[in-house]
Amino acid sequence: MPKTESAAWLQRDAAAVWHPFTQHSRWLDDEPTVVERAEGPWLYDIDGNRYLDGVSSLWVTTFGHGEPAINDAIREQLARLDHATFLGATHRPGIELAEELLSTAPTGGERALGKVFFAGDGSSAVEAALKMAYQYSVQTGRARPLFVRLAEAYHGDTLGSVSVGGIGLFHATYKPLLLKTVEAPSPAVFDRRTTDPATAAAEAAAGLESLMAEHGDEVCAIIVEPMVQAAAGILTYDASYLTAARALADRHGALLICDEVAVGVGRTGRMWASEHAGIVPDLLIAAKGLTAGYLPLSAVLATDEVYNAFLGAPAEARTFFHGHTYTANPLCAAAALANLRLMRERELVKRADELGVLLGERLAALTRHEAVTGIRRLGVMAAVDVADKGERAGVAVCKAAKRRGVWLRPLGNSVVLMPPLALRPEETDLLVGALDEAIAEVYA
Ligand code: PMP
Fold it and tell me: Where is the site Participates in the substrate recognition with KAPA and in a stacking interaction with the adenine ring of SAM (predicted)?
């Protein structure tokens, strides 16, 4: 196919489309890809070039694209029921998915995640969790209008989720519009305060403790991304922080919300990242990999205690006034159900853990480049920091990798690697090999 094919589509795109997180004044300079089809870990553009999908199409694919068993599940569901409302009605895929999700939920101690509330994407599930936490505080004694958020946090782009975000670049503009929050220090090592993860976690926990001592009575929930602050640059942190946050939430009668949108569904080598610390949150948010990357669907898993507070509230306050037109859409639910079942059958979480180790070994070799200033990884999510090089070093490295057939996305001066959980060893070599060559080229 001639190269002009994508050029023509990009002209039409530029004339009609407004893209997310995009500075349109230089949209075309960044050589966007016109994706035509995909198979497994491969994306094919409209000119017939193929690229290894090194970021799982924005952190969503589990098996890769076009997994036959998931395709079949969606097709079979389509033949029966495309959509039905979840208000005043229910359906088999929604019920079965809730059951399947709960069977995977983290356990330990007395707290049990026992109910599933569906939403449409990561942000809308965060919104639901925030409203649930606030309403729970009303049900159980006193309205607590304050949320604790972490520095460097990212929880989505709707106003509630922006309120609990802590990344200046993404969130500062919208500050006048937001909910009441207080910022706790990040437990991740990212500003060279210390190089020891356990020390960073202990310091951040001490910060959270004093914040809760001051504001605890007003706080309805502490919200965290467990183990990895992903959008901040795959900032990994020590599990001890989560244990401390769980204890502090309990001490002050606040809920702990674990946003597992990025880190859940096997991504960190455990089904849920909360498992690394052996904690059970009051609300657990799942999205992204939930449908294997096929369709938009998210979920808030709530403890029986939270659910029962709504059930036992005065009649006028029992309802959770929240829901979307497409809540638990049957096609989305069928995709998610097939994904979770297949993950169990094929032991994908265990394979992801093994893939993570291999990825870590391969990435370690990149330290031979002077330009590589840091590497972080947990499971199958990693970032390689590259030295500042005038403007947009991360973009330059990703462009050079793309010329070598590997599709990556930068976050500032970090290059993110988040391939499908089922990536094969030879594909892993290809992925890291292309990044290796790209760094060599850009910093030659
Ligand atoms: N929470 C976290 C931790 C995320 O990483 C993201 C998206 N990257 C979101 C929430 C928002 O999800 P969505 O983009 O599906 O709204």
Answer: 21
